[in-house]
Design goal:
about 160 residues, alpha+beta, 7-stranded antiparallel sheet, about 30% strand, globular
């Protein structure tokens, strides 16, 4: 199933005051019994090999600039993380992931909404707040990849039966 871009829910905007970039993608999931953590894990815990290769390249490049590298936990059910992302807040319908660094702060929000007794929509929202020129350059460089990754990983999770 294909994911599609949607408007960012205004109620989420206060999760990163002063953000300079936002986007959101949605897909209709095949199940209605998932909670937000389960959906987030389906999206972020098992990326395709090409995503892992891109992340390894990204981590190598950002290391030269003193930026944080995203490190994947070897424990797939680590309680404080989903994939490489620390959990900030969580409810059954929504999970907030994010990290702050000297160049930018970001938040990823996975939100579930029931559409019927057997399906629910899964929306992934990204908020980014840049702090300096390095943050703005970094964001500009990764945006094409971010958009591709967000749509691909959300659609891939949906196809896996989420």
């Amino acid at each position: 199933m294909k994911s599609h871009a949607v408007k960012v829910d205004p109620r989420l905007e206060n999760l990163l005051p002063g953000f300079t970039f936002s986007d959101a993608y949605r897909v209709v999931g095949a199940r209605s019994d998932l909670n937000a953590r389960q959906a987030a894990r389906a999206i972020f815990n098992s990326p395709p090999a090409w995503v892992n290769a891109l992340m390894a390249l990204r981590n190598w490049i950002v290391g030269w600039f003193g930026l944080k590298a995203g490190t994947r936990s070897t424990a797939t059910n680590e309680p404080s993380r989903v994939g490489i992302f620390p959990i900030v807040l969580e409810s059954p319908q929504e999970i907030l992931l994010g990290m702050d660094d000297h160049h930018l702060d970001f938040r990823l929000i996975v939100t579930l909404d029931s559409t019927s007794a057997s399906t629910q929509t899964i929306t992934v929202t990204s908020l980014v707040k840049t702090h300096n020129r390095l943050g703005r350059v970094y964001l500009t460089m990764i945006l094409p990849f971010h958009r591709l990754l967000a749509r691909t990983m959300l659609a891939r999770a949906s196809l896996s039966g989420v």
